[in-house]
Amino acid sequence: MNSVTNDPHAMTIRRKMILLIALPTVVINVLLVGLTTLVVFRQSRAGVERDMTRLATGYASRFDGHLREVARIATTTAEAVAVVPGISDEEIYALLARDVAQTDLVFGACLAFEPGTRRPADELFAPYVCRSAEGLRELNIDASVYDWYRDPSYTWYAQPKALGHGVWSEPYFDEGAGNVLMSTFSAPFKVPGSFGGVATVDINLPRLREAVGEAFEKNLDFVILDASGRFVFDPDPDRIMSGTIFDVARQTGNTRLTALFERMRSGSPGVGQADDWGAPGRQLVFYAPIPSTDWIFACRVPESVAFAEVRARAAWSIGALALALLLTIGSILFVSGRIAERVRTAAKAADRIARGDLTAPVADSASTDETGELMRSMRSMDNHLNDLVGEVKLVSIRLTSTASQIAVSSQRQEASSATFGATSNQIAAAAKEISTTGRELVGTVAEVDRMAGETAELAGTGRARLRGMEDVMRDLDHATTSIAEKLSAISERSRAITGVTTTIAKVADQTNLLSVNAAIEAEKAGEYGSGFLVVAREIRRLADQTALATADIERMVRQMQGAVSAGVMEMDRFADQVRRGVHEVAQAGAQLTEIIDRVNRSTESFAQVNQSMQAQDEGAQQISDSMAALVGNARQTMQSAKEASQAATDLESAIALLREAVARFRLRENGSSA
Questions:
Q1: Last residue of a domain, one of 305, 330, 360
Q2: What pTM was computed for the model?
């Protein structure tokens, strides 16, 4: 019997609860929070990317607004010159000075007239006002400065002239005029009857951020690229118009940057990634096109800065997870400890009951949960088991007495069955002798019948054969005497059979009585005597069959006795007749006719005797068959008695085992068996 284990390494219910509840809870929470954090991180990242994309679009729109304002200045100036074709040079310079002063983004303004309109055809006239350290500077950009009319590299004049509308030029270095990197918006104008020239406004690209600084965040890192990848603006002035984004990609070995620029010039805003572009580490690049130009605004933000808030949210989520897990594990430890203590108390009570100690009652529990229900069930089991064991002890004592009685009855029945078997064997032997004697009598009667016929024939031959017939009559007298003796023996054997059948009937009655007593005792034994009850019923059935067979034998013996008595009477009468016939044959042959008549009558009597003997032979054969069946029943009765005895022995062994098992229980003094 295993006791409650105290092994510190055993898998207790508390450890199982921790293993089966806390661990899955931790795993599920980690997975849920991990998935939630991942989803939140991705959603936050997507939100940041959307916000930054909108921010880039907003900045690009702001740039576009400033550039459109600059373009509007040039367009307004062109329209004014077209309306007032006779404007003087002083008014032109004053108009250009007002254009420059309208916004800090404008570096300079110019009116380039078509040669031959205000000056001779071989003279270039382009009044220009620009910013300088001393203030506004006025000059005429003629051929001595650079030939903007014939040099195809200066597109700010030729392109609007050819297109007929205002355009932004490619960034260039204005050597000789402003000596700065700039981009120019040129708006064409007309004089009466022909093309008059272009009005231009220049923006200083290196000072682009300073010019629109109030519209941007102070730490915003952005670049402006043209359609070919050249830097229109970069925080590093040396890179403006001196290189392309492809050069940066080659220098840093960042092939991702090339693919990013291909997406930039697709004309749609978006977001991408770049490594080591303008700063070490990975950068998030948010870009948007500037609609009024073919330029691209790109804002670079370190990924750590862009996703700082996202990482903070993830950190808070992980912290909340850790706190929730600590609280969950603490709760599980507390609850499992309470449950384990109650289960341990129940286990100790169950172990004590398993060892057979029912002396101490199980403590009651006021708890309404499953552990309290378990303790109440253990208490109820202890009380019921205490009463049950007491009752079993009493029943085992009664079963011991019953088993002893069954064993004694089985021994008596076995002895009676043995006696009955021996008697049945004697009866069977007697029946065989009767059958043999009957067959011999049938042969003798047939022989007597034959001899009587011969006697009648001899009597017919005459006196000469009288002596021979006298001898035959003597033989007939001896034969009838022998038949009478054998019939007497058959009568005596029949009376012996009657005694045997009486004994068999008594044995059957006693067996039936014993089976009834055994069945009563088996009923008292309850389920322990159920097997013996079946045996007792089988014995009773065999006893009933034996009684029926005995009645049949008695009936056939009575019939045989009647037939034998009739045969004896007939044989006695026939013997008297034979003797008288012999005497008469000896006296005179005159009575031969009467002898022949009597012989004939004797033949008829012999026929009756023959029929009686055949009936006797059949009865003897039936007696022999019945006795054979009776012997088989006697053997079955003996076997059943042995089985009943063995069942009684098994019952005693079972009772001994039951008493031994019950003896291990110690009951309370106030129990039912105290």
A1: 305
A2: 0.44
